[in-house]
Amino acid sequence: MEILYDTVSSVDFATVADNLRESFRVIASGRQHGEVRELRGVSIASAGVTFQMFNAAFLSTPVASEAELAQRILLASLHFEKRAQEWAYWVCEDWIDARTRKRSRKLFDRNGLRHTVDLPGMVAEQILKPVKPLPRLDVRRVADSPTCDAFCAIGSVCFNVPLSWFREVFDREAVWDRFIGYVGYRDEEPVSTAAVVVGAGAAGVYNVATLPGFQRRGYGEVVMRHALDAVRRNCGIERSILQSTTAGYRLYERMGYRPVTTVAVYST
After folding, report:
1. Tens of pLDDT, residues 94-121
2. Which domains does the chain have, with CATH numbers?
3. Residues 146-186 pLDDT 10s
4. DSSP 34-51
5. Global confidence as pTM
6. What is the rounded distance in angstroms from the CA atom of residue 239 to the CA atom of residue 267?
7. How far apart are CA 125 and CA 135, in angstroms?
8. Helix/strand/coil for 94
9. Of 44, 64, 93, 243, which has the fewest CB atoms closer than 10 Å, so is most exposed?
10. Helix extents (H) in the chain
């Protein structure tokens, strides 16, 4: 699928990058062995868990050359090598100048980081009304063991990750103070999830997932809209961002999102 990006303002892509980084900081700071650090041009937000995607590094300032990008990669590599942790680099590509960006994948590969996925970073100033009636769903905030277990179980299936890895990330109550999760129930059966993190003047949408047997029925949209409506009511924030999968891209467009950047993920 070809994605046509709008003319990107630095505010738009920086909002995506900053909220994404904040979501990992929220999780890391809620973990007993989590770590949040600022290096020169690199942010570390590591949950200290088995699931390497949550032991994360981010670019925090613009990169103007290959030598500068190589230095940023090395800084993060040394951090995680010292702790013997598997990890991932989440890169908002608009931090990197166009010429260096063309060579970036080779630079990451040279440092043992394989390219995992490219995710369109999207922004909506306001969520549009549904194009068709949505199904009824009982949406509950993650606030106890049953809802946490349901959130993890659905995420494990939908993101193809061992359940024990997912539970390790989300098994502490402190994580849920600002990483606000929701589970949608159909006839008391948990079928869909979404979460929001407020940061950088926007609500970041994460962990949108629906069990395979219940997809294409609008359940994910119901939970996501519920989460965003709660942020609007409680915080007065309407602007939201997300990183889209291929499967969810058209839905997000219909909801009012537009692509403004690409988030490339590299992992060990």
Report:
1. 999 999 999 999 999 999 999 999 999 9
2. 10-120 (no CATH), 138-261 (3.40.630.30)
3. 999 999 999 999 999 999 999 999 999 999 999 999 999 99
4. -EEEEETTEEEEE--SSS
5. 0.94
6. 30
7. 25
8. helix
9. 64
10. 10-29, 66-82, 98-110, 145-158, 163-170, 219-235, 249-255
